[in-house]
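Q: What would this complex look like in 3D?
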Amino acid sequence: MRRIAVPPRHDWTATAERHGFTFHTMYGAPYWVEDAAYAFTLREIEADLEAPSAELWAMCLEVVRRAVTDDEILASLAIPRDWWDAVAWSWRRRDRDVYARFDLAYGTGGPAKLLECNADTPTSVYEAAFFQWLWLEEARSRGLIPADADQFNTVQEALIDGFASLQPLWGPCAGPLLNRHTLHFASVRDNDEDHGTILYLRDCAHQAGLRTAVIAIEDIGVDATGRLTDLEDRPILALFKLYPWEWLVEEPFGVHLRGPHAPMVVEPAWKMVLSNKGLLVWLWRMFPGHPNLLPAAFAGTPDAATVGPRVAVKPLLSREGANVRLLSPDLPGGVLDEDGPYGAEGFVVQELHPLPVFDGRHHAVVGSWIAAGRACGIGVREDDGPVTKNLSRFVPHMIL
Amino acid sequence: MKRSARMKLLLMGSATLALTACDDTQEVTKAGVYDTVEQCLADGVYSEGYCRDAYKGATEQHAAVAPKYANVQECEADFGPGRCQVAPNGAVAVDGQQASGGGGSFFMPLMTGFLVGQLLNSGGRSYYGQPLYRPYQGTSGPGGAGGWGSYRTAQNVDVGARTGAVDVTRSTLQAPPARTTTISRGGFGARATSVGVASPGRSVSVGG
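A: Here is my prediction, written as structure tokens for the whole assembly.
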């Protein structure tokens, strides 16, 4: 894994905007960066990233399989008790999921290590799946990168397969009736990045043959029977929500996501088991010593003291690196704190694994995508500091 | 090769315009308005199977899609004396009230006819029937003398006052999901506001 300087396409901002990539620059700073690219060998991709990601995904599903019959696991993840049945049923019904992203520490030698799993509301998918691919094609054809450069990226194909797999489950009837169901894509109003993400995923669903609509999560209504409704007063029968489950279950309409009139929800309720840092502890307990896992324990338990002198303390539920605390004698003052609004549900302690640092400042994390159950591609984000956050930059990759 | 050979966007970015231009839901197409299956057969346009299927489909949708009223008087004011029936349990009135368990009921107009037409969709050709309703204007109404109005779909689309062939847009033929009545909105999104996700200018993604 190397970081190589590459000439950017002179017209890339216009290309981005033409393809709906409105959030290529955020908070006045570039988010998409193409004056460099990460280069991997095919061996690094296949042996160190692709195969381990597939294995990690299988291990995650093992944790869910066990969690749905093990109250201790559900309680440890701070999933509200009145949702345990809904989580278990969504698994037993085989509610389909579409996608997830592993964040891996890789590039300092040794196997990739799982930092966390974003299984409920992963973003940066448009950048990784589509715009990164477009960059490779254009940069190759313009001679900006070697003509034989390749990329590990069939993410969009896999997303389309994932959405297509939802079809047969819609409603009790087959055939033309399916065409009358609409998958509503919901995200927070006034957030360009999230809105861009659902517009992209909706495009994939459309290509999978689904009928789609877009709604702000704040605009969702409910009728007298407890069915969710859209702004045209039509029942929402299937809902893709780019909005965390742990928030949905606490909010006034959350109760309408379980029970007889609940819509089909993507990602399904069983993803609550995976979108939780407690997953890292259960993975380590069930697969101790696995080369792609780091030791982890719940904070405040006897195990936590054994994790090591260098640790990352992470809230069970948090996003974008918020409320993460790093403890290490190598850090100035021994500690680095990221602020944020999370942490009320408790914390896990995970062994601190160094990220590769390129050119003295670029801390890189590999996002490895799972869609339709397949390890199907990667995207690299880099940050000036050791915690990858919302201000991190997306840098394309290639296989040389 | 470890990447996809081709890729496209159909809805995102400037591609959206091209797709909108191809939208065929406003295209006009032939359909039939009939009171009975026999009338449909006598018209000779549709086969017996299509007539019967369309009628059956219309009657099956009727209870779910018909407009609902809180009392029989309001319903009969729109559709005429003796032209309303009790709606099934769980129905919601046009003003948002729900029938209570204590014997409260809602009323809906009788289905007076059905619409038959051909739709092309990904599954091939299929014929959909839709229930039709016919408002009645009493002598005190704006129309002056009493009489039957045009046939209307459950979405209140006027398909003319006569039975037989009629031109309608494709979107009229498409059976939409039954409309309901929203009694409350805004029950999602509070956490995003409280952690600053939805405040413009200082937003962070809820994703990760």
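A: To summarize the key features: The first helix of chain A runs from residue 12 to 18. Chain A has two domains: 2-275+358-399, 295-352.
Q: Very helpful, thank you.
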